[in-house]
Amino acid sequence: MDTANLTREETAARSAAVTVRSIRVELDLTGAPERARTGFPTRTVVEFEATTGETWLDFIGESVDRVELNGSEADVDFDGARIRLRGLSSTNVVIVDAVGAYSRSGEGMHRFHDPVDQHTYLYTQYEPADSRRVMACFEQPDMKASYTFVVDAPAGWEVLSNQSPAKVDVGVGVQRVEFAPTPPISSYITSVAAGPYARVDGEWARDDQRIELGVFARRSLAQHLESDEILEITRQGLDFFTDAFAYPYPWGKYDQIFVPEYNLGAMENPGLVTFTESYLSRGAATDAQRAARANTILHEMAHMWFGDLVTMKWWDDLWLKESFADYMGSHASAAATRFRDAWVKFAANRKAWAYQQDQLPTTHPIVADITDLEAAKLNFDGITYAKGAAVLKQLVAFVGDDAFFEGARRYFAANAFGNTTLDDFLVQLSDVSGRDMRGWSRAWLETSGVSTLHLESDADGRRVLVQSDARPHRLRVGAYGWSDGRLVRIGQTALDIAEERTPFELPDAELVIVNDDDLTYAKVRLDEKSLATVASSLSSVEDPLARALLWSSLWNATRDGELDAARYLAIVRDHAPGEPNVGLLAGILANAAFALRHFVSDARRDEEQRAWTECTWSTMSAADVGSDAQLSWARALATASVLDDARHVEVRAMLDGESPEGLTIDPDLRWQLLTALAATGHATAADIAAEEQRDDTGSGRTAARRALASRPSASVRAAAWDAAWNDLTLSNDHLDASIGGFRAGGRRDLIAEFDEEYFSRIADAWRTRSIELAQRLVVGLFPATESLDLVDAWLAQNEDAPAALTRIVVEQRDHLARDLRVRAAQS
């Protein structure tokens, strides 16, 4: 057995026999700026009680050099993932001296050297099980402890952790920072960051509570930090959650740090939340981008209660934190910030992720069966996040806002600093609402799959709401008609349904929207009359949430092969240029690009691609000067131009300064446009080198790698292929760039020769690379073949492959099968 892949059963046995009291972690990061130094000394002192004579500590690093147990030297029994401890007493103190490894994969202690100013930046990322790359620990969420971090670092660096410094000693060129002990927390949400980060301070106060706020970023990005808005959203969130949860913010301070080469959007480490630098625009940004950042800030803040204060016992109940935080991100955005339309984007964009995941053969209940850590890693998915949030939205409609939040308050009060399961939440909600929540849980949390709803008429002419399977829904059906040139709601019927067919009354209308107001989780099909109205008049629908639901319905029908992809794209060309909600527009543009690559039949692809390129160019050119729409369509033009070079002369002119009035061609958009030229043979390596010299930053170097790998040459693509598999020095971002360049433009003529080699490599990659990098290889390089023969052969021949690897391959097979099925239906 791979001892790094902890199982649910063995960790449950460990927590039953071991009670951890405190952990002290001493890290020597003084050598981090030395690039040749691959590791850092780490000492862990663990105090715990035991009812067993033997257990283990988790650690993954360069070496374990010394183990002391209860004052005596102990043998070092270390297999690369576990440190075996024998001869335990009822009360124990273990000291482990080891060397951790600096990471380039975003797992553990990630180290980044900034090419702009040559400064070194460190941060940690652990979820679900990478704190063992920095310290010896009990790597499971139900073994909470008080942690004290002590960090040696170069003088002048910011040194941060979950708590504020209790003591700082400054020496010659170095400093030692000892942080205050944390309240009881799980290992995966401990955190350390160190480096010459730029810092902006703030404060939030409520009654007698005062919380110090900090916002951090690399110095070379400080000018792009937008700290005033970030601090404003933070204060609004703390106001909202303090009232909503009736439990004071429990972590002492609230720092937020934006870090390079981050694998996630953000991570909820209490007192030190980490965010991807992608949330810091290096030039132009739409209001939708700022809304997304606000949503993520509030999502992570909700975790301070859902996940950090009260934590699931094991990863089966991951939804107890992620589903709630996803729901709260949108809810708090709409209720407490200027981004009042958060539920609009949720309906069209976030739920699309859930619908896609829930139709895969590997779908699972929201309360999942997670047997080990590899399975946990893959369950940070559209079910746990977006479907869980959508189901909670329906739950709120079912029991009411007051009952839902009162149930949450009681849940926190009863379980503060503890660990819980599904029943712990349901019992509180049942008591408050007066409803037995077990039936709701069985229907929505403990089953998988998505219902499809559509309208029919019965023999008496009454409308009948039909669902594909019998599941309880509380929803509304809206009737829309014309008023002053706009389509507005003229009637609405509320329904509680549980059967496959439910008759109801609704006035005749030009457009009928099932699941009006988006209360439930279900795909919705439009009747023929409504579809015709949408095709001709979608941009005339006044309510943005109604438009979101219609765009969602169109996209789901296209993905399922029930709406011709060419008809979908025609609707997009007709109505996306008039879509005023930029958050909606961003999702529409992304779906259009995806439909072109995956769902349009081969015979029509060139024609449809050309029509789309011209649509992006003309709409960008006609957009209001300096508007978010203008920027959004410019980005869509860059994406379209990777596949179609009809506007390559104009794209080159944009790079040379001849852009539409008001359009900001910032470094990121420049790279998008240049990569499009490179992929279609209209930019050279010299062009890319010149642009990299112009933007010699971490982002610029990553973008240059992608652009170079995108050039339409068989030898270039072969070099990108080789680098992805064999260059072990590539960081996570550079690996993505090599993969993206290899796949650029859908040029199967350049890369199809590697199809069989892919299947010969993936098992070894999964065995030898970290799960983060292996997953990028297996997903990113999966070949878009014209049949399923190769993948089916691999699955048949590798029945004993690790379950997590098999899951990824099965999911990629399903995506490919859908593409082939939808294209064939249109041929």
For the sheet with most strands, the description reads: 12 strands, mixed
Mean pLDDT: 96
Beta-strand residue fraction? 15-25%
> Helicity level, as a percent range?
40-55%
Distance between the termini: 48 Å
The structural class is alpha+beta
Query: How many strands appear in the DSSP assignment?
Result: 28
Low-confidence stretches: none
Principal-axes geometry comes out as globular
Q: Count up the helices.
A: 27
What distinguishing features does this structure have?
827 residues, 12-stranded mixed sheet, 5-stranded mixed sheet, 27 helices
Explain this structure to me?
The chain has 827 residues and is an alpha+beta fold. Helix content is 43%, strand content 21%. It is built from 27 helices and 28 strands. Strands 1, 2, 4, 5, 7, 8, 9, 10, 11, 12, 13 and 14 form a 12-stranded mixed β-sheet that branches. β18 and β19 form a beta hairpin. α20 packs parallel to α22 and α22 runs parallel beside α25. The radius of gyration is 27 Å and the shape is globular. The two termini are 48 Å apart. The model has no long low-confidence stretch (mean pLDDT 96).
